[in-house]
Amino acid sequence: MTKATPAYQRIKNAILANIHSGKWQAGNAISTEMALAEEFGVSRMTVNRALKELSEERVLERRQGSGTFVAQQQFNHTFVEVRNIAQDLKSANRDYQAQVVSKRAITGAMLDEELRRKFGLEKMIESFDLKEVDDIKSIENIDNQTPVLYEVKIIHFADGQPIQFEERWVDAVKVPRFIEQDFSVVNTSDYLIAKSPLERGSYTIRALAAPDEVAEALQIAAQSPTLVLRRQTYSAGQVLTFVKMWHAGDRYQFSGEL
Question: Which of these, 249, 207, 210, 243, lies nearest to 228 by C-alpha position?
Fold first, then answer.
């Protein structure tokens, strides 16, 4: 049986939905605490928690004596330059294609330890005060059937040859329509930047032997050498997306100028 989403989280989700839909835009005042309390049938303390968390995440701005407003995002699309394989191949005058292998919604119960840590779920659990009923429900909610992340797996081709296998996870609350996109046409990075401007990111590059799924996607022998770029990018102070990009070691190199 699906467990109920805690009240403060329902309020957060509703506010984020209004922002993403354009109903509330940057600089707009949102509903008052009293109005939200009446709308959701909860106490003002519960509403205050939702607004406080969204303010800490830099989604909202609370002004003493004036109300709560959608924060003006001071960063823009180019603050973090995120290049993608489609741009690189087209710039090199190579034919580019993308094939979606799979896409799905992931619930809390399906998350492995790495994804829980990347998206802050472990930290959220540790911060709970178990005396609060909503907090207990929130912990239970991590394992219910509500989507927490979206996952897509995509093969990128250059001149008909697979050159990159992309495994990507995206915050389902922040980008609710991500899973609906046709990623054989729309590039994942371009879509995310358009919907939620990225403020910072970090990445690592490692040489790893290809596991079976990756080897099959890249059409190489299992355990062949690959270069793996792991990148996480942030929006509104939290991880928006985490991606692993696998490249066949004999077909791809990373280069730049110092």
Answer: 207
